[in-house]
Amino acid sequence: MFDKPTLKVVVASGNPVKVSAVLGGLQQMLPHTTIETVSVTVPSGVADQPMTDAETLTGALNRVQNAKEAHPEADAWVGIEGGVDYLQGELATYAWVVIQTEDLVGKARSGTFFLPKAVQELVEQGLELGKANDQIFSRINSKQKGGAIGILTDEVLDRKQLYEQAVILALVPHKNRELYRTQSSNA
After folding, report:
1. pLDDT tens, 121-157?
2. CA geometry: angle at 112 spanning 110 and 114, to 5°?
């Protein structure tokens, strides 16, 4: 993947924040490569609001598989799934990023932070996190903007930046193919 001058990367989302994060992470890791991103909306196969770490990772993996089926000609497929989970009674949020090429999968989780109690209560009532944020913070479609982290940090850190770092981390096996492919074959 890293030796081609141009890469076609399918991002399994219609959310412009996720597409931008993927492009930003790829550009940082591959500064001399032309990257063409294709956005495709595909199902995650999990709840609209994944409530566990395992469900969130499964959603990202499912998105990658569905994107690959939709665009098998691409060089890589990327799935990003945001989720929540309880840690010591508090609701934390994060995202899983999965990047797959024909022969290798990279996975990474974004930074994690805790949600305010008011947001947690709405999510516990069945509201998706983005809608809960919009309701509590009087926003419109915040998940396609700075997200909860942008709101809570006054945009010092936004959703794109949070996801972009996880994209870079998920690229580590791809950047170090021989190390990771050898590791997989000896397992």
Report:
1. 999 999 999 999 999 998 988 887 888 999 999 999 9
2. 155
Specify the DSSP element, H or E, that contains 53: helix 53-70
H or E element, residue 18? helix 16-29
Q: Does 74 show up as a binding residue in the annotation?
A: yes
The whole-angstrom separation of Cα 39 and Cα 13 is 6
Q: Residue 96: how many CB atoms within 10 A of its CB?
A: 26
Would 149 be classed as within a structural domain? no
List the beta bridge partners of residue 11. 39, 78
Residue 128 located in a structural domain:
no
Query: How many Å is the maximal CA-CA distance in the chain?
Result: 52
The reply to whether 132 falls in a domain is no
Query: Are 174 and 97 contacting, i.e. CB atoms less than 8 angstroms apart?
Result: no
CA 95 – CA 6 distance, rounded (Å): 27
Whether residue 84 lies inside any domain: the answer is yes
Instruction: Please tell me the pTM assigned to this model.
Output: 0.92
Determine contact, residues 80/97, Cβ cutoff 8 Å.
yes
73 is in an annotated binding site: yes
What is the extent of the structural domain holding 93?
6-112+160-186
